Known about the structure:
Helix 6 runs antiparallel to helix 7, helix 7 runs antiparallel to helix 8 and helix 9 (about 245-255) runs antiparallel to helix 10 (about 260-275). The chain is of the alpha/beta class and about 375 residues long. The chain has helices at about 20, 35, 45-50, 70-80, 90-110, 170-185, 195-215, 220-240, 245-255, 260-275, 280-285, 290-300, 310-325, 335, 340-355, 370-380; strands at about 10, 25-30, 55-60, 85-90, 115-120, 130-135, 140-145, 155-160. The protein has 2 domains: about 10-160, 3-Layer(aba) Sandwich (Rossmann fold); about 170-380, Up-down Bundle (Dehydroquinate synthase-like, alpha domain), CATH 1.20.1090. The strands form 2 sheets. Strands 1-8-5-4-2-3 form a 6-stranded parallel β-sheet, with helices on both faces. It has a two-stranded antiparallel sheet with strand order 6-7. The protein binds fe (ii) ion (FE2). Fe (ii) ion (FE2) binds near residues 177, 181, 246, 260 and 264. Fe (ii) ion (FE2) binds near residues 181, 246 and 260.
Amino acid sequence: MKSFDIKTKIFFGDNALDRLEEIPYNKILVITDPFIADSSMIQLVTVPLEKGHKQYDIFKDVVPDPPIEKISEGVQKMLAYKPDAIVAVGGGSAIDSSKSIREFALRVENYGDVGLIAIPTTSGTGSEVTSFAVVTDSKDRVKYPLVSRDMMPDEAILDAELVKSVPPAITADTGMDVFTHALEACVSINRNEFATALAEKAIEICGVFLLRAYLDGNDTHARQKMHAASCLAGLAFNSASLGLNHGMAHQLGAIFHIPHGRANAMLLPHIIEFNSDINKHSKSRKEYLPAVKKYATVAQILGLSSYNKIMTVRSLVNWVQFMLKEMDIPLSISQMGTISEEEYFRAIDRMADAALADACTATNPRVPSKEDVIAIYKDLW
Ligand SMILES: [Fe+2]
């Protein structure tokens, strides 16, 4: 038996932040990062809170790849202030931190129901509607994905006003993260009709609007569309899960601090090739692997098709490479110029073990061996 539901209420479109005036909570802890807290952006959140006569305090110590120590500082802050809701403002790190802080604080002292309202300031993680949070053990450089339905936000507010100032490189990285979420949800072994419907819409939007948002950050229409796509893809992978792409990208983030969306984007052509086996297909297989048909459908949504399914999947790989080049995302680790060859190859064995153990990898459509993962990491160099 399968089931599908959307726990999070979503507010979106023009003036979506006005929702903060009416939220059914009175004592709010805003959790954000210092950049947002010290810029005028925070007023987009605090002004409606004040209009709605809400009492609030701000915890502004969120850092990228939230480490356990910062989560524990947030837990102390929450237990000292005892809010009836958390408003998380930021990218995936702020929202993931807020989920973990609420979860752990209430385990330490369950003083009552605490709402969680997620307000993303990038169009990427979809964290505003998922039950996942990633916490980093910075000492051992390991990322731990936490999963619990209790961590899902009660409300998500999607207001494109907050993403207008996102610089092109981050628009590119986060946008490719959206695309990867949607694509992995479409081919996952947990895929289902409901998740696929949402993922396919996200893919269609990425095809039309990602490059537009990258080229002109002030294109409000494109920004709004990508903000919706991010949430749609989040809903999709929350139900269908992800795959090897994320399993391998997490290790590149943990060890080499490659931004999450960028790591996903760079791996994507390699993972599509592996999952569909398009390079060896004609020699070794009589039948297509299951992912081939799904990838071909995605290619068709993007307006790509060729005279057979394998060539259509090849055109999807070409499209991804085209997007990477257009948006100045390196195609290989060596092209980045920031990681030494020796250091990278030394880490491959360890990264391969961690990628195979990563929860995302379990739902990949093709079961990878350690040798497969090592070969992909080597190819990525
Ligand atoms: Fe992601």
